[in-house]
Q: What sequence folds into this?
């Protein structure tokens, strides 16, 4: 694998827009520290509307100074996780922010003493229009208020949130994988960046060995992974209880202004729709000509030998054509992302695996991928660019406070891009083999996103519930829960490798508790949006861009989706989605 300095500059993201470098990092930090003193000076003075307005403006200005520094360090860490200097920079920033949090406890203390009547007065005052979201959140926070001494203690407990970083260091840097053999006995270098290409291979032995090696390697470290994850679960349950929430999942959902019933409704409907998934597995077994169907076979690509490869330039052009139903401005932004180097494209030694998008207010968004020329990577690129466009339009339309869309809707724009790409490819190809590949892609996405992510969510829910009920957690219990859920979600006709019980240990999203079910919600909405956009339904583009992409967090997320055309409180939304999928599977069978 290439080192970072062997990657051409045009394929690396351009971080110069932040104005932060290794050389001026500490100078920038000192500037931020000095600015913090302006906020410290307000202690004991927040007694008037003018003082509050001054505070809120200073906080916004501090974010403008501090956010580029933080995101620069984060991105540099992702480029090469083995470089300790960026870990040291991150630690320095952590200490800065902890000190700031401790010295500004007077702010929350003062704000929490405001009566509901006083907060409502401020909400009705036009001078506070830019901070209405904060004031609305303050009303909710008053229900979970803690004594000042407890608040001060918890503000300094930054070490509580280190489990995700520990998991990443172990899995991405310290842990290595053995080579895997194919059916001819040839050994292949193996890592998680090239996992997909092995699992999609038409070589069944390679598929099996890849999945066995992947999960088996995590199994060798399962004591460490388990101890780390259990500590993370305990942390979340502790903070939920400390802040007077009934459970960790309740805290997560209330923080996003989503009713817990939305999650329960998803699980109920997905469980009821499992026969569609089982039907897909059986059909795929027949297509592959297999007598027995194992979990590693579910990843196999149909017509693997006909599979196309795409250069990065070709991928960008393909995505531009696919998203054309969203209009010229949207298409031009995809081109800008390439030309202005918003994207870090290729894998390199010690680079963070996977892909993500990240953005801060006032700057264009950035994307990290590990592009390897396969069709799956084209979809990944489209996915992350969907996130990027969501960030771009929200930042462009909303003020700072209301620009950041909630995690609940975070996966909608990304998966809508994917479904637009799928629809475009299906409409363009005349080849039966390629159509089958795309139908397979659709149902693999449905398997991975609607069904699999809901299974992940059930795992999280069950594990947290065990701790909250006062029962003990252990590595064996975690593995048993995960294995039994796999049995439910794969059905009795799919055989499971024993090593699948260790798979939970490689899921980084478990450290962002109760996030994964939103992927399922995202695809359900995306199937809805993409279908109407592809058909050119009147008003669909305007609703999607104006009522969704531009909305940020200006309204509750379920309300935003409803106004854009996807009502998650209506049972028909789920029923229609699964009917659509059943019809698509029938179309595939008729080919």
A:
């Amino acid at each position: 694998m290439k080192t970072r300095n062997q990657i051409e500059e045009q394929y690396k993201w351009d971080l110069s827009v932040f104005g932060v470098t290794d050389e001026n990092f500490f100078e920038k930090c000192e500037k931020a520290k000095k600015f913090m003193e302006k906020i410290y000076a307000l202690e004991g003075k927040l007694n008037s509307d003018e003082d509050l307005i001054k505070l809120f403006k200073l906080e916004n200005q501090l974010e403008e100074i501090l956010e580029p520094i933080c995101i620069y360090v984060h991105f540099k860490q992702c480029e090469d996780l083995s470089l300790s200097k960026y870990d040291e920079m991150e630690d320095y920033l952590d200490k800065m922010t902890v000190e700031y949090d401790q010295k500004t406890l007077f702010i929350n203390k003062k704000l929490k003493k405001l009566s509901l009547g006083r907060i409502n007065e401020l909400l009705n005052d036009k001078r506070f229009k830019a901070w209405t979201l904060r004031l609305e959140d303050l009303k909710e926070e008053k229900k979970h208020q803690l004594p000042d001494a407890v608040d001060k203690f918890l503000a300094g407990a930054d070490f509580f949130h280190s489990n995700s970083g520990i998991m990443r260091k172990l899995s991405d840097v310290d842990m290595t994988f053995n080579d895997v053999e194919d059916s001819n006995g040839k050994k292949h270098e193996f890592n998680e960046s090239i996992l997909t290409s092995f699992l999609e291979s038409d070589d069944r032995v390679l598929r099996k060995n890849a999945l066995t090696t992947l999960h088996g390697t995590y199994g060798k470290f399962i004591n460490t992974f388990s101890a780390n994850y259990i500590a993370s679960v305990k942390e979340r349950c502790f903070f939920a209880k400390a802040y007077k929430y009934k459970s960790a999942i309740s805290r997560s959902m209330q923080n996003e202004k989503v009713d817990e019933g939305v999650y329960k409704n998803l699980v109920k409907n997905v469980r009821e729709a499992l026969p569609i998934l089982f039907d897909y597995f059986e059909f795929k077994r027949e297509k592959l000509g297999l007598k027995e169907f194992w979990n590693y076979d579910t990843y196999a690509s149909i017509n693997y030998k006909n599979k196309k490869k795409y250069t990065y330039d070709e991928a960008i052009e393909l995505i531009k054509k696919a998203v054309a139903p969203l209009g010229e401005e949207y298409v031009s932004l995809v081109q800008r992302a390439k030309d202005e180097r918003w994207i870090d494209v290729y894998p390199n030694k010690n680079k963070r695996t996977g892909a993500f998008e990240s953005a801060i207010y006032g700057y264009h968004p950035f994307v990290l991928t590990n592009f390897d020329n396969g069709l799956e990577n084209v979809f990944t690129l489209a996915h992350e660019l969907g996130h990027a466009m969501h960030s771009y339009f929200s930042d462009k339309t909303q003020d700072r406070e209301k620009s950041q869309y909630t995690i609940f809707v975070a996966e909608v724009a990304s998966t809508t891009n994917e479904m637009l790409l799928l629809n475009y490819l299906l409409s363009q190809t005349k080849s039966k083999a390629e159509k089958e590949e795309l139908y397979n892609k659709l149902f693999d996405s449905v398997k991975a996103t609607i069904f699999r992510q809901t299974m992940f969510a059930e795992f999280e829910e069950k594990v947290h519930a065990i701790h909250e009920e006062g029962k003990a957690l252990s590595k064996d219990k975690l593995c048993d829960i995960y294995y039994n859920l796999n049995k439910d979600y794969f059905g009795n006709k799919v055989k499971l490798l024993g090593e699948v019980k260790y798979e939970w240990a490689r899921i980084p999203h478990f450290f962002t508790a109760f996030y994964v079910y939103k992927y399922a919600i995202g695809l359900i909405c995306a199937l809805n949006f993409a279908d109407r956009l592809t058909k050119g339904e009147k008003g669909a583009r305007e609703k999607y861009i104006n009522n969704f992409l531009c909305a940020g967090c200006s309204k509750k997320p379920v309300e935003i989706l409803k106004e854009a055309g996807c009502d998650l409180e209506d049972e028909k939304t789920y029923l229609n989605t699964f009917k659509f999928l059943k019809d698509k599977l029938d179309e595939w069978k008729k080919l």
About this structure: The longest strand covers residues 356-358.
